[in-house]
Structure prediction request, 681 residues.
Amino acid sequence: MKRNRIELKREKWIVGVCLIGLLMVGACADIDQSKRKKSIEQAAIEQAAAESESSTAPEAQFLDSAPVGDSLRVNGEVTTTTTRSVTIALSATDNVGVTGYFLSESAATPAASDSGWVSVPSTTSYSASVPFTLSSGNGNKTVYGWFRDISGNLSTPVSGTITLQETVVAVDTTPPASSGDGNITITPTGDSTAPSSPSVSINSGNSSTTTTLVVLTLSARDNVGVTGYYASESSTRPTGDTGWVSVSSANSFTGTVNFTFSTVTTMGSHTKTVYVWFRDASGNVSASASDSITLSVTDTTVPSNPAVTINWNGSLTYYRSVTLNVSATDNVGVTGYYASESATRPPASDNGWVSVSSAGNFYDDVSFSLTRGGGTRTVYVWFKDSAGNISASANDSITFSNGYDSLVWPDTGQTTSYTATFGEDHDYSLRTPSYTDNSNDTITDNVTSLVWQKTDGGQKATRAAAISYCDDLVLAGSSDWRLPHIKELATLIHAGNYNPSINTTYFPTTSSANYWSSTYYSSYYPDWYVSFSYGTVTPSNISNAYARCVRGGAVTSSPHFTDNGNGTVSDSITGLMWQQADGGSKSWTNALTYCESITLAGHSDWRVPNRNDWLSVVDYSYSSPALDSTYFPSTYSSYYWSSSSNAHDSGYAWYVDFLNGYVDGYSKSYTNYVRCVRGGS
Prediction:
């Protein structure tokens, strides 16, 4: 509960004059990178001093590659328009975050400083539909798009083409001989000429094939532009839009595409014919072209015994990246597999097939990325052989916790005042940390309900060894011990202590050192850990750390956030209500004053969140930003102040870096973003 403000303000005699901080909504990326580098260097130096080790933790280098433009579509799948005003559907990805796009009918690459760039909130997976005005004049119009990230890296261009056919307004200057309806006539322009010279060749003119998957070489001409093709084993002229494949408009079109013949179930030689039509933007369809090839069938047996397990029969994962254990057999040899979260059987020509070395008995462990969002995920797998025969599907399911865990976070344990300004961590108490010693070398956290190993593993080990240690541990009659998730491990940090930053009454043998979590970050900095020297939450590529095992805990399969539609977001588990948009960039003291003074959604009891409040919304399955941007869409991939001071150096306060969820301390005199919170239960 909040302490009496009058009493606290009497105790805290405010001195000096408050400087009004300028709102720095757009903190530049190079400052963030410099701050992030300094913070990680500081953490490394502090850790080295605490553990008296000769080596310094490696300095973080966040690699930032150029964005990848995925697609650009003009007016969806429509090939013509009668108006210059169109809608552009864009999509792109970036490992740090797409921050802007540039559209033009010129193929010239824009400069990063060009005034035509449109800024967007940073996101690793960007998609939007935006308006665009085409240049005047009928004909084919190609729109080019580029994307940039916070470092100024530009993507290669993506493009889309549409045919503009505006009506021509002709003015008749001859006055009517008698009363009429005006001197203006509307003459629609049109194209009634079908594409010509249609051509198709199968496998570059080869006379025979042993697989149902072939390559078609296509070509046709059109006075305005070929915009699509239709390929079929039926000679019936296509009607409607189903089955047509769109292509970039070209007067002289050529291309190579994959095509899969219908399955043949009998051995021997079979003649296969492909018929192809072409169309233009006006919907004119060419005459058909065809080619034939002899399909020699020597194998009609589909791969058998298809099987897949996720994470070696795992039931729960905190990460999108999982391992599929796949296997199948074939009388000739398995040559590929296809994995998907869709139960729809893929054709042999689908781009999603992964080729493998032919093997009669195939087995492999392969990586797979689950779709975002918590809940049960089912992965389906098919196998094929060199003849294009496709197996039946196999599938397995796993529960994916994307950060929507059921942790009710305790207070940070910080009860010391470090400032005369009201609003710091010390001024609020919601869920006092509480533990029970079970007298069997286990400790129960009465707030989170997690059960912890009281005495850790006793020596440093690799992360893999730490995982095995906890998986194999039998303690207090229980064998379901595991290495904790990074958020679970962070609940043990006592922000009022350091060396070690934990409640030593209940965990007396804890080292002032690094402790492993089970959370994976990336191939560059693969593992998250907590430093119990001062309480940093860090991703790094360290070699060894201690392990403390945990058991219990539950995971919800649906989001626990609610957008209240009034600039706030509620969390049903913690009882917190969040300011949906941030309040700009401020010094730590000014951030405290800002949150204490605002009124939002009819409430005036807002405050700066403590470090545990922040960790309750961090989602370690996301990055740039590391939280669910559906509910917090304008969050920067940058530092946000907490109300918690660094007990080791009170001139520093803890922040959360929403690039990835990193938690460290920074000088209170510097500026970081602020977002307010209220309530809690």
